[in-house]
Amino acid sequence: MTQDQAVDQEPAVHNELAEGESLPPCLTRRTMLQRAGGGLAALGGAWLLAACGGSSSSSSASSAASSSSSSASTSSAASAADLPVASKGNPITLPIFSDNKPIPSGRSPEKGPLVIYDWAYYLSPAVVKSFEARYGVQAQVTNFASIDEAINKIHSGAVPADVWVPDANHIVELVQSKLIQPINHSYIPNLNNVIPAAGDPWYDQGARYSTPNFINLFGVQWRNDLIKIDPGSLSNPWDVYWKVPPGTPMGMVNAAAFDAISMAMLHNGAKNFDTVSLSQISDAAAALKELKGVKWQYTAFQPLATGVEKLSFGFNGDMVQVPHYLPKNVPLSATSFYFPANGYGLILNDLWVIPRSAKNPVLAHLFMNHFLEEQSAIDNFRDEGYQTMLKGLTIEKLKAAKVAPDYAIEMAFATAEQQTNGLPSPIYKANQLVAFEQAFAQLTA
After folding, report:
1. Which residues neighbour 359 within 8 Å (Cβ) at sequence distance 6 or greater?
2. pLDDT confidence of 83, banded at 50, 70, 90?
3. Residue 51: its pLDDT value, please?
């Protein structure tokens, strides 16, 4: 049996990290890329622990395997090396440490100012203003350009953040390093209003450390007046990029190394990302390499609107911005977005967390709760094009609020079924991330 075959046959397990159990050091995306290029970056401290180690389940398995033969142990180790620590099918419960517990209930809000650490253009000013008015405090929004930058500045104290937005891929390292604190749900009753997949997420079962931010669908975007294609008519909608005429100008999102490669894995027949072998990554990259005329980019709304690209793989939120860039003689109806109704596609959601060093932890909790208000969700969709994972947020409410043209709302809206059934990228292990980064570097060189 090959390593890849062993990985594909490994059963899904529920991972729970026990208090005091440590994970081996891993790498952020930046240092991973440096290693993939042959260099070895200095990690700079024991705090930089990544989601690339075993769990209590794997520890138990290792103990049981000690009585097996040497060859069986070797096979098990080889397969475990390719298993993600956590994925949708392998959810994880994060530990709460005795020296890092949630704040007590019933405290009064601090006087602020509340320091919000976020991506640029990722939060409606109206949401910040309504929070300030509600609690009679000031809020300061500080921006970062990468997760690496944010982690380093929070760790060093360069940014005294009270609440900030990492991603699921980093949550284990943040918890294990005690860089963030558990949340007290009594301050965040609006957690009851989010869809179940967001209130009890696979990367943080029980929402011990996080509350949901925005949901993103990675879908097919195209100019239907320039190219005649219907992804929904294909037996596998992700074949669409290989079905158009060779050389068709198209874009591919480059937000993370595994985004487009994951889509190509679905094109190649993957049904989920609960187990990912190195050969799957290699084969997906090879399939992407077959495509000619690809431009790697973060957003597609401008090239799609202007017709520079006829087809792209990108975020549903782009479709809210497309109307601002269309030539006057091109109607919005000339654009289309597709994501499978059954959720068979890549999704992403960011999350809010509270640094352990927060000076205003009660206000931080209250801001998390305020973000999950329906009016906040409407303001964010209008100003940023991103959707909050609320059960009560509907297309009809967004249309009534006139946040965007009706058709743009329809294209950008993620249904509860799509949010629940979509396929998020797992928390990958180090060797998997290296494989993704090497493949991505070659594709974008």
Report:
1. 110, 115, 160, 162
2. low
3. 31
Identify whether the C-beta of residue 301 lies closer than 8 Å to the C-beta of residue 253. no
Whose CA is closest to 344, among 219, 222, 252, 242? Answer: 219
- What is the spatial distance between Cα 410 and Cα 405, in angstroms, rounded to a whole number? 9
Residue 304 lies in domain: 216-346
Side chain identity at residue 111, one-letter code: K
Alpha-carbon gap, residue 226 to 248, rounded angstroms:
10
Which one of 326, 346, 366 terminates a domain?
346
Diameter of the chain measured on Cα atoms: 73
Distance CA 434, CA 330 (A): 43
The answer as to whether 129 is a domain residue is yes
Q: Confidence class of residue 14 from pLDDT cuts 50, 70 and 90?
A: very low
- The burial of 269, by beta-carbon neighbours within 10 Å (0-12 exposed, 13-18 middle, 19 or more buried), is given as exposed
Whole-number Å distance between alpha carbons of 78 and 7: 8
Whether the predicted model's global pTM rises above the 0.70 cut: yes
Do 186 and 170 belong together in one domain? yes
Report the CATH number that the domain containing residue 227 is assigned in CATH: 3.40.190.10
* Strand, helix or coil for residue 140: strand
Alpha-carbon distance 148 to 329, whole Å?
A: 43
For tokens 């084969």, the residue is 283
Q: Number of folded domains in the chain? A: 3
Q: Are residues 155 and 167 in the same domain?
A: yes
Asked if residue 427 belongs to a domain, the reply is: no
8 and 122: one domain?
Answer: no
CB-CB contact of 342 with 421 (8 Å): yes
Same domain? For 234 and 336 the reply is yes
Mean pLDDT of 391-416: 96
How big is the chain by its Cα radius of gyration, in Å? 22
What's residue 44's pLDDT?
Answer: 30
Mean of pLDDT values over 366-372: 98
